[in-house]
Amino acid sequence: MNLVSLRTVWLLLVTTSLTSAVFAQKQSANDGIPGPKFITVGSATVPRTSRTVPHWTSSFTTDGVVYPFTMVGTNPATSNATTTVPTVIIPFRFVLPDGSVLDASTKVTNVLNSPNFNNYAYTSGNTQFGDAVQRAEFWSSVAGDNYHVLLGQPAVLPTQTINVPKNQVVFFVGSHSGKLEAFMSAAWFTQKLTNAINQLHVPATTLPIILTYNTFLYVHDINVFCCIGGYHGAASSRNGNGSQQVQTYIFAAWADPGIFVNPSSQDVNALSHEVSEWMNDPFVNNPTPPWQFANGAGCQANLETGDPVEVLPNDAFPVTMNGFTYHPQTEALLPWFSREAPSSALGGAYTYPDTTLVTVPSSPCS
């Protein structure tokens, strides 16, 4: 999820190192932008104890270079176990400077009913979205067995009501969406995320998901780097000599239709992006050969499965369930990053669930 090279070390109980600034409120800005961006926040050394989410480590080799990686769950090459990670949802309710409110608790039921937490008939199995991607990714090892990486049915923690200072937010009614939209300083928001996880005493073995509604982030200047729809991160305490707890987490914004020009960028598109990236890179420290985005615009060198295809206008894989059509995002698979040919994933795929979205391995950065 690192659309630009933004890598900040964020320590639990320590102020974020993102630089904050003062922003003037504007009543119209960036309305109708193509789609959200996604970043990562912090990183952590792979812990030696179980004081974090279950994980396993392996590596792949490309052009003679070994790239280690760590993922959530157990190694599918040696285990057919089912891993279920306890999960909590923390809704944020923002009170804007004019008294208007954006309350993510109004979207919790929709999120709970989504394919992120419910089974759907994917070609890799009747299962949750994130697990379907993992099973497809390691299909040569898991086909026909009971291997799964699942999110536990989330506990919904108390809604966090937060008053937003006028120098930290731009908000307006979008001309495309007709809805109230807010764009906040990422540094200010991240402090609120940190506080919520700490004050609610979320265990490091649990995945907290911070949910916002039509609320997105910018870095430094809304006109320069906007708008962030989600991120995942990892934070470790200072003490422990390598055995300290490591807290992983996700922030994802629910977006109403019309907020972004890209029709894929709505409802749980951001959440599905972050869930898959968290499963594939929970500690935000999995390197890969440098790769180009699927549209050739820009380069990265990390195992962030949603980023390569987020730039495409048709990145969603619509799923209708519980009376609602959701838009989870198609993800790039490990063979795409490792440039494995042919791919050992389900059906020789490089992306999933839409296996036709990208059909060749990643291209090196020129």
List the helices and strands and how they pair.
Blueprint: E1 37-41, E2 55-62, E3 65-72, E4 82-85, E5 87-95, E6 101-103, H1 108-112, E7 120-122, E8 125-127, H2 129-137, H3 139-142, E9 148-151, E10 155-156, E11 160-163, E12 169-173, E13 180-185, H4 186-199, E14 207-213, E15 215-218, E16 226-236, E17 246-254, H5 269-280, E18 287-292, E19 299-302, H6 307-310, E20 319-321, E21 324-326, E22 331-332, H7 334-338, E23 351-352
Parallel strand pairs: 1-16, 4-9, 5-10, 5-11, 5-14, 13-15, 14-17
Antiparallel strand pairs: 2-3, 5-6, 7-8, 12-13, 15-16, 16-17, 18-19, 20-21, 22-23
Helix pairs in contact: 2-5
Structure, explained:
By secondary structure, this protein is α/β, with parallel strands linked by helices. It has one domain (37-352). Helices cover 14% and strands 31% of the residues. It is built from seven helices and 23 strands. The strands form seven sheets. Strands 1, 5, 6, 10, 11, 12, 13, 14, 15, 16 and 17 form an eleven-stranded mixed β-sheet that branches. Strands 2-3 form a two-stranded antiparallel ribbon. Strand 20 (319-321) and strand 21 form a beta hairpin. Helix 2 packs across helix 5. The radius of gyration is 19 Å and the shape is globular. It starts with 36 loop residues before the first strand and ends in a 14-residue tail after the last strand.
Structural class: alpha/beta
Overall structural domain count: 1
**Radius of gyration based on Cα positions:** 19 Å
How many β strands by DSSP? 23
Strand content: 25-35%
Describe the main β-sheet briefly: 11 strands, mixed
Distance between the termini: 21 Å
Residue runs with pLDDT of under 50 for 5 or more positions: 1-31
Specify the number of helices. Answer: 7
Mean pLDDT: 86
- The percentage helix is 10-25%
Overall, the morphology is globular
Order of helices and strands: EEEEEEHEEHHEEEEEHEEEEHEEHEEEHE
